[in-house]
Design brief:
The structure holds two protein chains of two kinds. Chain A is α+β, with helices and mostly antiparallel strands. Chain A has four helices and nine strands. Chain B has two domains: about 240 residues, Probable tRNA modification gtpase trme, domain 1 (Gyrase A, domain 2, 2-Layer Sandwich); about 100 residues, Aminomethyltransferase beta-barrel domains (Elongation Factor Tu (Ef-tu), domain 3). In chain B, a hairpin with a 4-residue loop joins strand 17 and strand 18. Chain B is globular. Classes of the chains: A alpha+beta, B alpha+beta.
C-alpha cells in the first residue's frame, strides 16, 4: 500500500492498487467535535474528484465530504452506521468512510503529502 | 453580524485558559464546549451538574414605579402589579401583532428596600430591546457589570450550598438576593436545560473566583453553549430566532401557559385584540416535536411534507439527543395537515419519513413545591 495523501477539504486517501480508501483526517474530526451520523454514499455511485459524495454530521453541524479522485464507490464502512463515533476515535484507520475504484490514478499526484498537509494546516 | 467585531464576555480569558472552543453567537465570542466535548457535557448536566457562562444575555434593573409598570405592560402579557416579589416569570415582549420581540425572565426584587423589576433577555435582541427600554422607561439601569452564570443539573443544590447560604425551601422559579463577599448576588432557581438549577447574576470582579469554587466540586464541569442547545431542545424549550420571532405569537408557539389570560382583554396590551382572538380560534400553525424514522439528522430550516410532497411545515431546531441517542427536532406544521398521515422531511433533496414525538423529549426535573 502506498503512503497516505491528503486534500484541502481534510480527507485522507490511501491507495491499494486501483482502490482508494478514503476518510477524514484527525484534524477534521477534532474540529468537527462529536460525530453522530455519517450519511454513507451508495455503493456503485460514480463520482468526480472534488464532488460532494456524502455528509458527516457532528453535534454541531453537517459537513460535506468530497471525493478526492474520480471513481466509483466500491464499498462503504457499514460499522459507521452503528457507531459514527468511530470516526472520532480513529479517524485515519478504523474510521475510514468509503472505498473508490479509481478511474485515473494519475490524479493522486494532485493530492498533498503528509508534510504538505501539515504545512497547509499551519497556514 | 457583518461588519461588527465580536465582543468578549468578561471571563473570556478564564474560558480560554480552560480550553474552551469558541463560536460567534449573537455578536459575542462564546464558549461552545470545553475539553470533554458537547455530548459528555450534556450527559454530565443530566446526571450531575454543569456551569454555563451566559453573560452575553441582557440584564436590566428597572425601578418599580407605576409609570414603568404601565409602560412595560404595554408589551409584556403579565400583570406586573400583582406579581409576588422573589418569583421569576417566563414571559415575552410582544409587538402589536402579538409577535415575539423577545422571550424574557422577569422578576420583582428588593435590593436594600428599593424595589425593582429585573429582566433577563436575549443577547441577539439587546439592540432592539434597549431601544424600546430607552423609549418607554424612566429610572432604569442596563446592567453592564455583572456576569450571568447558570448552574444546572441534579447536583446543583448541593454544589451551590457549599458556597452560598441558600434555603432548601427555595423552589423552581423562586428568587433570592444574597450577600456574597459584601456584594449582592441575584439568584433564581431556574435555567434552560430542563434540570434543577440556578441562574446567578454576580458582579464581574468576583465572578471568576465564584466559578473556580463551583468547578472545584468534582460533580461540576464547565459547559458551553453547544450542550445548552441540545439540553433545551430535549426539554422542548423554545429558542429565540428558532421557534420564536416577530412573526410568531406565543399561542402558535405552544406557550399560551405563559400568558396572563386576564391581560388579553386589556387595552393597555398592544396586541390584546390579536391574542384574545387567537386564543379562542384555531391557530394557523402549531408546534410539534419530531424524530427521524431512520438514523438521519434533523436540522433547522428543513421543510416538512405530506405524502403528496406538499410543503406543510418547517423544522426550527434540530439536534442529536445524547440521552435518546437519536436526532430530535422541533418545528411548526400547518394546523390543517392530517396528522394521521405520514410526514416526510426534505434532507438534502431526499424525502425521509419522520414521526411526531411528545414535547418535552426528556422529562423535566425541576424542584417543584410539594
Amino acid at each position: 500500500m502506498s503512503e497516505k495523501k491528503y486534500t484541502e477539504e481534510h480527507e485522507w486517501v490511501k491507495l491499494d492498487g486501483e482502490t482508494a480508501i478514503v476518510g477524514i483526517t484527525n484534524h477534521a474530526q477534532e474540529s468537527l467535535g462529536d460525530i453522530v451520523f455519517v450519511d454513507l454514499p451508495a455503493v456503485g455511485k460514480e463520482v468526480k474528484a472534488k464532488e460532494e459524495l456524502c455528509v458527516i454530521e457532528s453535534v454541531k453541524a453537517a459537513s460535506d465530504i468530497y471525493s478526492p479522485l474520480d471513481g466509483e464507490v466500491l464499498e462503504v464502512n457499514e460499522n459507521l452506521s452503528n457507531d459514527a463515533s468511530i470516526v472520532n476515535q480513529d479517524a485515519e484507520n478504523e474510521g475510514w468512510i468509503f472505498k473508490l475504484k479509481v478511474s485515473d490514478i494519475s490524479q493522486v499526484n494532485n493530492l498533498m503529502t503528509l508534510d504538505q498537509y501539515k504545512e497547509f494546516l499551519d497556514k | 453580524m457583518t461588519g461588527e467585531a465580536l465582543q468578549n464576555i468578561y471571563l473570556n480569558n478564564f474560558h480560554k485558559n480552560n480550553n474552551a472552543k469558541f463560536v460567534p453567537f449573537a455578536g459575542y465570542n462564546m464558549p461552545i464546549n470545553y475539553k470533554h466535548g458537547i455530548i459528555n457535557e450534556h450527559i454530565h448536566v443530566r446526571t450531575h451538574a454543569g456551569i454555563f457562562d451566559v453573560s452575553h444575555m441582557g440584564q436590566i434593573l428597572i425601578s418599580l414605579t407605576s409609570e414603568n409598570i404601565l409602560a412595560l405592560e404595554f408589551y409584556i402579557p403579565l400583570d406586573i402589579k400583582l406579581l409576588q416579589f422573589n418569583k421569576c416569570h417566563y414571559s415575552f415582549i410582544l409587538n402589536s401583532h402579538g409577535g415575539v420581540i423577545d422571550d424574557i425572565m422577569l422578576s420583582k426584587i428588593k435590593i436594600e428596600d428599593e424595589e425593582f423589576i429585573y429582566i433577563v433577555y436575549n443577547a441577539s435582541r439587546k439592540k432592539v430591546l434597549n431601544e424600546i427600554f430607552k423609549k418607554i422607561l424612566l429610572n432604569y439601569k442596563i446592567i453592564q457589570d455583572r456576569c450571568l452564570l447558570a448552574l444546572q443539573g441534579p447536583d446543583s443544590f448541593s454544589v451551590i450550598t457549599s458556597i452560598l447560604n441558600l434555603s432548601s425551601s427555595m423552589k423552581f422559579l423562586d428568587v433570592a438576593i444574597l450577600e456574597y463577599k459584601n456584594t449582592k448576588v441575584f439568584i433564581s432557581r431556574s435555567g434552560y436545560t430542563g434540570e434543577d438549577g440556578f441562574e446567578i447574576s454576580i458582579l464581574d470582579n468576583i465572578a471568576e473566583n465564584f466559578v473556580q469554587k463551583i468547578i472545584q466540586n468534582e460533580n461540576t464541569i464547565l459547559c458551553g453553549l453547544g450542550c445548552r442547545d441540545s439540553l433545551r431542545m430535549e426539554a422542548g424549550l423554545s429558542l429565540y430566532g428558532n421557534e420564536l420571532n416577530e412573526e410568531i405569537n406565543p399561542i402558535q408557539a405552544g406557550l399560551s401557559w405563559a400568558l396572563d389570560k386576564n391581560r388579553l382583554d386589556d387595552k393597555n396590551l398592544n396586541c390584546f385584540h390579536v391574542l384574545s382572538k387567537e386564543i379562542n380560534t384555531s391557530q394557523s400553525i402549531k408546534k410539534i416535536g419530531l424524530s427521524p424514522v431512520n438514523k438521519s439528522m434533523l436540522r433547522a430550516q428543513m421543510t416538512l411534507h405530506n405524502k403528496n410532497n406538499k410543503e406543510i411545515g418547517k423544522i426550527t431546531s434540530g439536534c442529536y439527543s445524547p440521552i435518546l441517542k437519536k436526532s430530535i427536532a422541533i418545528g411548526y406544521i400547518n394546523k390543517t395537515s392530517d396528522m394521521s398521515e405520514k410526514i416526510y422531511v426534505n434532507i438534502r433533496d431526499k424525502l425521509e419519513e419522520i414521526q411526531i414525538e411528545k414535547i418535552p423529549f426528556v422529562k423535566k426535573n425541576y424542584k417543584k413545591g410539594d
